[in-house]
Amino acid sequence: MSMISRRALLRGAGAAVALPWLDAMAPALTASGRPPVRLAFFYVPNGVHMPLWKPKAGGPLDELPTILKSLEPVKNRILMLSDLAADHCNGNKAAHEPSGGGFLIGAKCKHSEEPEVAGASIDQVVAQQVGLKTPVDSLALGIDAGMRGDHGYSGTYLSNISWRSKSTPAALELNPRQLFDRLFRGRAPKRRDWAAEEPPKPAAKADSVESSVLDLVREDARTLQARLGFSDRRKLEEYFEGLRSIEKRLDQAGREDQPHHKEAFKEDPVAKGRDSDLPNVIIPEGRGIPATFAEHVNLMLDILTLAFQTETTRVATFLFSYEKSGRSYPEIQVGSHHSISHHQGKAENHEKLTRINTLHMELFARMLSRMARTQEGETTLLDNVAILYGAGISDGNKHNHDDLPILVAGGGGGTIKGGRHVVVGRKPVCNLFLDLASRAGIELKQFGDSTGSLGVLG
To answer: Rounded to an integer, what distance in angstroms lies between the CA atom of residue 341 and that of residue 352?
Structure first.
């Protein structure tokens, strides 16, 4: 078995496909000889139902609360953190806009209809350095496009947690077909020209899976497999199966007549443009968006997993929906999320909010389980990621920004000890950002309103 470069690509007519981590690449990985840590930030809107999120006491994660039950298979890679605060998300007469736009910034958003934040968000601070080592420096992924702002704040704050500069959010990718094409089809992945006003359009391809990217690189793949040992051949086959599965699902999504967005927002009073004749909610367009919310999320997260697996990128953010989202979830018989989050202490609203929170967590847990099955040498992809999951609001009725719902998933390359619930004692969430950046190899003395390292991850 000969050694293979980590940057090797499978090439064919009009296609270039990145490879997953293989044993044959081990000497070329990092100075430590192990895969690098990949970093992600997952955001849920409108807070959560905290009584069914928060474990009863600090210590080992024994029995998981209701919302977290789906994490049971991977709970040894879950670190729950309580009593973290985001005081910088407090706004002037508004809670949601400064929570979404400011969460990963660590400072208050400007109270203006022209968006302005303090600087680059923590994911982009990391991406500015580690992104130089990957074809795509970072990904900003989401499901819903967003809406107009309120109380004198820009709506840009609601739908963007990742910011490249004070006035420029990272371009939000919503369409899984377009995302897949950009990363895995038609050409070697390359950096987007972020100075351009519009993102580049993917190369025109036939809609059928018969135009599979794997078909285009088949000969190169056969040559590579002949050079690999049994374990690497199996990994490569599993990777190809994952790619093909996504292509088939994208093909099906491209045939759907009705993407899920129009149904999801038809009952939302904010979406109907109560303050003007203009619609408040932006509905994504384009073929490739599935007919259900769950399949949309699963496709986006499967593509993200492949991007991490192939080290196409090491940094990502993901929005289950924009902050203040009034999305309905007909699949679980729940109406407007934002309206329900203003629960007023009513048990029926608590129960519906729990259903939404549980659905989000189940989709997240599915991704983690897939990462846990993806081998990287003697470790797994889940061992080599550090993923924050949380929100800038705790209770959607109170709009409070303390005791946030925060967890960290993944082993951080062996530096994060999971299976625990730690009560940190009211500290800024930016302290956690410092520790996560460190896991990705970026040492920062200060970020936002941080006061130092949490010192509890390992």
So the answer is: 9
At 366, list the tokens. Answer: 């599915």
Max Cα–Cα distance, the chain, nearest Å: 66
- The pTM assigned to this predicted structure is 0.88
| CA neighbours closer than 13 Å in the CB half-sphere of residue 125 | 23
What's the rounded Cα separation, in Å, for the pair 309 and 366? 16
C-alpha torsion sign, points 20, 24, 30, 32: positive
Instruction: Identify whether the C-beta of residue 324 lies closer than 8 Å to the C-beta of residue 97.
Output: yes
Q: How does DSSP classify residue 109?
A: P
Q: How many CA atoms are closer than 13 Å to the CA of 99, on its beta-carbon side? A: 27
Helix (H) / strand (E) element for 230: namely helix 230-253
Separation CA 168–CA 193 (nearest Å)? 13
Question: In terms of pLDDT, which residue wins out, 265 or 222?
Answer: 265
Spatial CA neighbour of 209 closest among 137, 288, 284: 288
Nearest to 325 by CA among 246, 261, 376: 261
Phi, psi of 387 (to 5 degrees): -125, 120
- Tell me which amino acid residue 207 is: D
Strand 379-380 and strand 375-376: pairing?
Answer: antiparallel
Element spanning 124, H or E: helix 122-130
| pLDDT tens column, 300-319 | 999 999 999 988 999 999 99
- Residues 318-370 pLDDT 10s: 999 999 999 999 999 999 999 999 999 999 999 999 999 999 999 999 999 99
DSSP string, 151-206: TT--THHHH---BSSSS-BPPPB--HHHHHHHHHSSS------TTSSSPPPPPP--
Phi–psi pair at 60, nearest 5 degrees: -60, 145
Most confident of 4-18, 101-115, 139-153, 268-282: 101-115
Give residue limits of the domains in the chain: 9-439
Read off the tokens for 344: 């007023």
Q: Is 458 exposed, middle or buried (0-12, 13-18, 19+ CB in 10 A)?
A: exposed
* 55 vs 421: CA distance, rounded Å: 7
Radius of gyration of the chain (CA): 21
Among the listed ranges 89-93, 270-274, 400-404, 426-430, which one has the minimum average pLDDT value? 270-274
- Tokens encoding 205: 């391809």
Cα separation, 96 vs 134, in Å, equals 33
Alpha-carbon span 36 to 312, nearest angstrom: 12
Q: What is the DSSP letter of 398?
A: T
